[in-house]
Amino acid sequence: MRRLKTNHCSRRRKKKSKDSLNFTGRRFILLIKELLKLIDAEIPFKKAESWDNVGLLIGDMSSEVTGILTTLDCTLEVVQEAVDKNCNTIIAHHPLIFSGIKRIENQGYGAVIHALIKNDIQLIAMHTNLDAYDQGVSAMIADKIGLTKQQILLPAEREMAKLQIFVPREDVESLKQALAQVGVGQIGDYSDCFFQLEGQGQFRPNASASPYIGTSNQLEVVEEMKLECVFDPHLQKKVEETIHSAHPYEEPAYDIYRFHATDQFGTGIRGELASSVSVKEWLTSVKEQLNIETLRLIGDSSKMIRTVGIISGAGVSYMKEVAATGVDLFLTGDIKYHEAHDLLMAGLLTADIEHYSEQVMIEGLKELLQSFDSKLNVHASEQSTNPFKAI
Ligand SMILES: [Zn+2]
């Protein structure tokens, strides 16, 4: 049976190992561009926020990957670690380069860029695209603290286009084939998704028409099929060209309209505990499991909780949307004083788990990449890049 991917069923889908990568003798050769393609197939870079900067930030697409080092931030110490571990590729969650660079001096962030280029190390950023992924950083935190029944907390919506078209019965298969070839009927991992219904169409060609079926000025009734299918809106021009070249009629009858569908990507993860627990007690174990130095609760510490929403990094700007989901507890980082008051006013029990709790992605991304292809040589950085030290 056709299974459409939803947040629920795709969450723990077993990854298939890709076999499209090259082998030369016994040596496994992977170029940076192939690594990016492999990542993009699962965690598309286009899913990143518009303000973000993801993908290959520094390096050469045609370089051969000698090893990958995963890290939360790219610092000088991390570059040194990559050199020591013979990894010429660093994948960082936070982009080193964000806005327009005016000069690169050998100091501050410039020194890191210098070190990367001097040592011929490529830098890839997987930031908000990894956040939007259903096995991304929030899910890695959820795994670490033992939440089950995980699903995207705030699913994103994506625009889709729907085509309905009427075609003589004998031409329906060739039209479906032509449309499928340009990407129509692609839903998640499924291609050639069409619905068809039999009916009768009628038309009267005028004197200047050159009809495929029928005679000028005579009413014609034809056995037709109504075909329905969806496609990505960016394909619309190609789809209409295909209709006009593959449909037998001089004036094919069709409608295209846009709609919004729930995406399999989104913001944060929600999950459940096996039973209701006291928030104060549970947070003590969370602090340990995430290895964080400070954990601050905003709200009633005597409350019992069972459902938890997580937005890794800094997610307090989503407070209203998270409150509307009805989770018992919200976990995020980087909460400022007045935002904490806003959370109290909104009645959303929240714990600040520090931005640095995202460090679980260092090991998490290593495992994820190896689940995409077990032959990948990936190391998790052992450097702490936490700029804060609790006194
Ligand atoms: Zn972050």
UniProtKB/TrEMBL annotation:
Q: Which InterPro entries match?
A: DUF34/NIF3, DUF34/NIF3_bac, DUF34/NIF3_sf, N-reg_PII/ATP_PRibTrfase_C
Tell me which residues bind a divalent metal cation.
H93, H94, D131, H355, E358
State the similarity comment.
Answer: Belongs to the GTP cyclohydrolase I type 2/NIF3 family.
Instruction: Provide the protein name.
Output: GTP cyclohydrolase 1 type 2 homolog
Sorted keywords for this record are: Metal-binding
Taxonomically, the superkingdom here is Bacteria
Q: Which SUPFAM superfamilies match?
A: NIF3 (NGG1p interacting factor 3)-like
TM ranges are none
Sorted alphabetically, the Gene Ontology cellular component annotations on this record are: cytoplasm
Q: Name one GO molecular function term.
A: metal ion binding
- The region annotated as signal peptide is none
